[in-house]
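Let us begin with a simple case.
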Amino acid sequence: MNWDDLKVFLAVARAESLSGAGRGLKVDPATVGRRIGRLEEELGAPLFAKSPQGYALTDAGQRLMGHAERAEQAMGAAVEELAGQAGALSGQIRIGAPDGCANYLLPQVCARIVQDNPDLEVQIVALPRVFNLSKREADMAIGVSPPNAGRLTVQKITDYKLHLAAHRDYLAQHPPIQSIDDLLGHPMIGYIPDMIFDKELDYLSESGVSRVSLASNSVSVQFNWVRQGSGIGIVHDFAIPSTTGLQKLLEDRISLTRSFYLIRHADDRRLDRMNRFAQSLAEGLRAEVARLEALC
């Protein structure tokens, strides 16, 4: 058994398809299938069961998975050691994040890290859902609540604030908002209720709002509605400086605090490169949240 075969095995296990694994490995699916067949023949056991849903690990595949992941970690550690740990960061690191963080914080934070490490390639995957790190959808993820399952490590990065807000042009054309009851006559902007993927994102129900006139699963879409004067919504304080004309409302009545968490594979704690990047990322996010919130 060689490391190249194990890499193919891991790719299929995580993608749950030959085509998905092939895209990641940059080889055609037929080649992936032949490599898996060769590995199964060598081990004398089927590693995957094919179904309409894709390739699922058999019992033998499940047992091999742990060994393959440990081999992957060992190879990564060896590469780091041979490359030297004290130099600049290099290679590719993919971060998964909810789109609020991905749009208004990560671009400038990651750009500064790459500026200091020119051989580093950072990829930001902005999706309004929880990332599956066990399938290597990302090397690390930003979450709004700590996970309670899986072989993961969790580090709290920072708290952040959210407030009710509207554009000044909208407010000039509508009756003043002096109490929560005054919100009843206004179009409210928020999440699609059945697409809220984390209870920490259920902002409006916590604020006593029961009906949403304009809804999206994307924070950026919600923010753009508020920015263009379509109604009233809960916005991140750190997003407000990215535009002009927004005004916070009922600050003494509705003020929410949430937190960002850095979520990583437990085994990646052994990798100096990942530790150094994680430290730079967390420090950068803390500083950027503080800077932007001071401006709004």
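The second case is a distinct protein. As before, the sequence precedes its structure tokens.
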Amino acid sequence: MRVLAAMSGGVDSSVAAARAVEAGHEVVGVHLALSRDPQAVRASARGCCSIEDASDARRVCDKLGIPFYVWDFSDRFKEDVIDDFVDSYARGETPNPCLRCNEKIKFAALLERARALGFDAVATGHYAIVDDEGYLRRSTDEHKDQSYVLGVLTKTELAHCLFPVGDTPKPQIREEAARHGFSTAKKPDSYDICFIPDGNTQAFLGANIGLRPGMIVDTEGTELKEHDGAFNYTIGQRKGLDIKVPSADGRPRYVTDIDAETGTVTVGPREALRVNTIRADRLKRLHPDMNGELDCLVQVRAHGSVAACRAIIAEDEMVIELHEPLEGVARGQAAVLYLPVSDGGGEIVLGSGTITATSRSA
């Protein structure tokens, strides 16, 4: 096959490209330039899109003897990921930009161009597995599993994806990179949001949204403190509230709701975070069982655990009834459904939806 290897400049994509070459594919490496922010060239940038990352990717391709290109997707990235991130926070949601990048850039825009140029598949360093039946499963390395952020793909996109490192624990991937002589073998994993190099998300949102004063209130509606913008808060937040008036029972307060339209941020006790029902739309189906009603598992955060549930799925929306309450579920997050398996492999990804509402029983 003709395979386009998406090269982030990290160790995982380096080994993924090497394995694609070893499998006998005709491989071309490509690095996506996603930001024109001058800070992104700094060695201290903590994302995956800096000029240093592009140079690391080029050196790996030179060692493998494969062509290497840099494709400028910065305009598309700004529109589909950065602007979406800002708009989502402005609506009082809590988005996951890495998930949106996978959906709109790495497995939509990139795959579209790759297919137009005659490539059969795109290979990435994601930790996930596509089984013999074409279903997406969790990685062998449960600590690095990235199936959650891939749950936003379409079935057609998944059919043209390769995840060569998904069946191997991360320490072995680093050892394999060292055997190849890749400079990325000891490179730290990327973290934080790539388009916010200094990690100060609140300052970034403040600069892009502007001051939108509102009020922090308790669950009874009592006004506690004025704030500069609801985007400074997320569901489940405890630290940084800086409320001078203690709660009546002396217990910590948590953000339990955000109304961006009125600027109202509601705080309450931890038990007020517990929800029993999740509603989601913008469904993506990766398995035929994602239809009608079924018992399955749901994950609502990239590094969160799964919860047993009953999912009622319609055309483009679903209702998830949790068997046990979950805490800190926010609008804008993805709800990814999993099917338990008994064959010893990882759970199968059924599909996903974007959370629009939550509710809790008395």
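The radius of gyration is 22 Å. Residues 2-125+164-186 form a domain with the Rossmann fold fold (CATH 3.40.50.620).
Keep these points in mind for the review questions at the end of the chapter.
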